[in-house]
Amino acid sequence: MLIAVEVVELEEVVVVAVLKVVVVVVVVVVVVVVVVVVVVVVVGGGGGGGGVVVVDIVTDIFIMAFSSSSSKSSSSSSSSRRSSIVVVVVVVVVVVEVKVEVVVVAAAVAVVVVVVVVVVVVVVVVVVVVVVVLVVVVVVVIVLSIAAVVVVVVVVVVLVVVVVVVVVVVVIVIVAVVVVVVVEEVVLVVVVVVVVVVVVVVVIVVVIVSVVVTVVVVVVILVEVGVEIFLCEKWLQTFRKR
């Protein structure tokens, strides 16, 4: 009878171990997916500033072409007509440049607003997901277990990394927008490249750390379960000898 009870307890230990491994893998996968979504959404939101470059480039090409055609037509006309055409061209160029500047400022403000809204939504979603995951961990994994403590620590660490990544990306994007409004488009290209490189590096680091932590946690769980099984088998052998 006692042997049957011990066998049942041994089976329960194995089931709990499997549940622990599944919970750890699910936690890490969810957190990694959240990190990737956060980065993609934030970078996607910040990427809207690229439209400013396109607007400026198209406008410059239009102005150059218009100025060139106007200069050709003015060379074949009289001096008075040439003067009036030059005045008209100058007025058109000034108006177009003013409109372009307004578009740039409006795009910058829109990008900042979108980035702020996206960041608030993403932070709320991350907090909700982490709270739900922690509740699941506490419910499924044995309380005061080594694996439970490790999983909670992993979740907290990854959450901190996600928040730091979001804050850094948002700050870089806002600075890039401000710089674009004040300086030139070349700076925008450089800043966007830097942002993309930083984000890619951070995502790769987070994924690698998550995989390593997952392996470590699974090994800890297996060692813990192995010790429990070993102790159960020792107890069974001692009981049989008696």
Automatic annotation (TrEMBL):
Keywords assigned: Membrane, Transmembrane, Transmembrane helix
Keyword Amino-acid biosynthesis set for record: no
Transmembrane segments: 12-42, 48-66, 86-109, 115-143, 150-183, 189-222
Domain of life: Eukaryota
Name listed for the protein in its UniProt record: ABC transmembrane type-1 domain-containing protein
Naturally occurring in which organism (per UniProt): Elysia marginata
Lineage: Eukaryota, Metazoa, Spiralia, Lophotrochozoa, Mollusca
